[in-house]
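== Polypeptide entry ==
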Amino acid sequence: MNQHKIGWIGIGRMGYAMAQLLAKAGCDLSVWNRTRAKAEPLKEYGAKVVDKLTNLAACDIVFTMVAAGKDVKEVLYGPNGVMSGGKAPKIVVDSTSISIPESAEIRAELAKRGVKLLAAPVSGNAKVIKAGKLTIVASGPQDAYDTVLPYLSAVGSGVTYVGDGELSRIAKICHNVMLGVVIQNLCEITLLAQKAGMKRHAFLDFLNKSVMGSMFTRYKTPALVNLDFAVTFTPELLRKDIELGLSAARELGVPMPLASVTRDMVQTLIGHGYSDQDFATLLLLGAKASGMEMKAENVKVGDGLS
């Protein structure tokens, strides 16, 4: 894995876990983060921590995993960005969740500098990464994908190439729209089962063992059973992604009635003050509407990742 010099920008929960896997795989890895202290622990795995973004300009491939599109632009070609000194990497791999127009704008700007962009959004969170079950969808030039694939494979259990341009962005948006629709339905049927007299853990155990069970339903089972709503994805982020999906649907003429209703449910959740908790608090919103008092069942249940 020392064939290319790799740069990494962004050491949040996701970025740290992904960069750590690259370092553990033996990559020639240099890391920059706005708060240097968050990147320091990666030295233990062989990564180099740099003080300036321009230190990454000599890398062959630079990964970005930051907060938003404006941050991608700033760290790459802003006044103090990677390319501000006149040098540039050959390929940028961006895994930040950004809109299709933003991605296209960044791609065009990088092309002016002779840099290829591979858009590579991911499905999962830090816990999923540690369990080796992160999945990645990529779009951009085929040759850039072929070059980067070994490094993507080092951090993800499944990598899918969907074509050129921004197709991976729409794939991720579609994925997150489904995330919203599925969690809303999962909460509804769990409440129905409980109000009929079942324990939540028993119903979800049956569901997870059936053909309808999935990695997602198993992963969310502990939260729904024991009411532990530590954030994995906030309602506001879910609303944003559903709205991006609905916007694309309007543009392309695709009716999405279930997504529309789910967007309104997520908005209602935010309006009831759950914005700083996990999106699975849709269970609590549904319980209120059903006249149900929710209590943690305090049952040890697996999340399908261990």
